[in-house]
Amino acid sequence: MEEANKEVAEIRNLNFLEEIIESDLASGKCESIMTRFPPEPNGYLHIGHAKSICLNFGLAKKYGGKTNLRFDDTNPVKEDTEYVDSIKEDIKWLGFEWENERYASDYFDQLYEWAEELIRKGLAYVDDQTQEEIRAGRGTVQTPGVESPYRNRSVEENLKLFREMKAGKYADGEKVLRAKIDMAHPNMLFRDPLMYRIIHAHHHRTGDKWCIYPMYDFAHGQCDSIEHITHSICTLEFDVHRPLYDWFIEKLGIFPSHQYEFARLNLTYTVMSKRKLLELVKNGFVSGWDDPRMPTICGIRRRGYTPESIRMFAEKVGVAKREQLIDLQLLEWCARQDLNERSNRYMVVQDPVKLTITNWEPGKVEWFDAPLNPADPEGPSRKVPFTGEVYIERADFMEEPPKKYFRLKPDGEVRLKYTYIVKCQEVVKDAEGNITEIRCTYDPSSKPGAGEWRSVKGTIHWVSVDHAKELELRIYDKLFTEPQMGSIPEGKDYKEYLNPESLTYGKGYAEPALLEDRSGIAVQFERTGYFFKDPDSTPEHPVFNKTVSLKDSFKF
Ligand code: ATP
Ligand code: MG
């Protein structure tokens, strides 16, 4: 039977979490599913979190369940409401809605009650040892630990001391509450794990009410249980915590949430730890959390990636049980897929050389209709002004071209996109031999829609000199030079691998309609790439970030 189920799952291409959920629903183990996304509000979310968000919210959506957003705010020292707000904004932007917004701190009273309950059951005690003594007493994987001299305090004494801890009688580090399990347990986490520590610090939600705070292992599972989370999904490194997660739930006899682990997402040329990202921001290596080179969701958004492309990326990455390093180019591929379908097109020349049409009536402006998206030629269009002086890309002209060069060359013909065919008659140079002007004639009969379509091999983009709008372009490259940032040699600092060319500036000359674009997503600069208007833009000084180039070197 099990075999048969597995085969069906394979045919339907289910990932292991979907298999588990379908089986739990089928067996009646749960009636509906409830997941949660549990960020610690100590930094901005990154693409790894996006993966976890898509997974938690996506699974609930797929199986008619719900997802809570729960802030894991058990460490007041590092946490802040600035992060809470950004996290909520990022999840909404990704296109997900949470059922309830909760905080671990909402449950501090209940967690405290449960801690007393475990004390009363003889399963927890107050330890006066220092952090170092506790660490030393844990032993090693090979050798058992030693029991704390305070381990066998009476229930009454433990209750009294724990209440005094709560009341603020002791300084940070003076006492801790530990579960009383087994100092020789093969799983080190079972050697009397810490449940509570003293931190005299202001909490962004509970203020100064508490000076003892629960540890991860005594908070996460209990919060899951309170919220009736059926499938608590976390990353692989927590698999050793799972037995402890189950232990607390069992001893307290509360709602049996279960934990499942999947591989965290790693990307080439990227660091993902919040500590490192914070350091990049604090030390000015990037302009902020939303610097378009950052792997943060706000950085990615500013860069011009769409929520659709991030969700597509999460889907393609899939759910693995083993560590994975994903090629950054997959993310770019997803952005191209989405933007290719949806983005509006405009012509922008980045390295201009002037092309003059000698048989054009001086001063004449002719407006052409050009579709905003070629996939929808009958759809909305923009108006493009054509005159006798246009900019083309310097790279679209070659004086001594190789054989298969189909762009403009001496005596050659090319179509200026959406308009006429022009023929190169003369090249003008300055004293140093640089080309300053290309003189052409145009063929009036080659106007699109006027008579028979004459085709030439090359079509190039252009912008009318009189109408060109100057843009600042910010061109991004990988933030780091090393693909495997997770395995740099010991003794090396990750900052040594910062790419000095991760940001370069360019100029663009755009057709006027670009500045009227209201699509809200990145646009395509025809034949070049996708670009997204930066919030630094002003009407006088538009700034565009390069999202990704058109060219695709990614192979599945
Ligand atoms: P960091 O170690 O950088 O501080 P974190 O894992 O501690 O990150 P949390 O705010 O605790 O950050 O993470 C919230 C959720 O996102 C957790 O469930 C965590 O497992 C998940 N998550 C974090 N990083 C990744 C990643 N790279 N890939 C997949 N899921 C991740
Ligand atoms: Mg964490």
UniProtKB/TrEMBL annotation:
Q: What's one GO MF term for it?
A: glutamine-tRNA ligase activity
Domain tRNA synthetases class I (E and Q) anti-codon binding: residue ranges = 459-534
| Domain Glutamyl/glutaminyl-tRNA synthetase class Ib anti-codon binding: residue ranges | 343-443
* Alphabetized CDD domains for the sequence: GlnRS_core
**Domain Glutamyl/glutaminyl-tRNA synthetase class Ib catalytic spans what residues?**
33-340
Q: Name one Pfam family in it.
A: tRNA-synt_1c_C2
Key words, A-Z: Aminoacyl-tRNA synthetase, ATP-binding, Cytoplasm, Ligase, Nucleotide-binding, Protein biosynthesis
Q: Where is this motif: 'KMSKS' region?
A: 271-275
Q: Where in the cell is it found?
A: Cytoplasm
Respond yes or no to whether keyword Nucleotide-binding is given for this record: yes
**Principal subcellular localisation of the protein:** cytoplasm
Q: Does the keyword Aminoacyl-tRNA synthetase apply?
A: yes
| Annotated GO biological process | glutaminyl-tRNA aminoacylation; glutamyl-tRNA aminoacylation
Q: Which family does it belong to?
A: Belongs to the class-I aminoacyl-tRNA synthetase family.
Subunit structure and binding partners: Monomer.
* Protein name (Swiss-Prot/TrEMBL): Glutamine--tRNA ligase
Provenance organism: Candidatus Cryptobacteroides faecipullorum
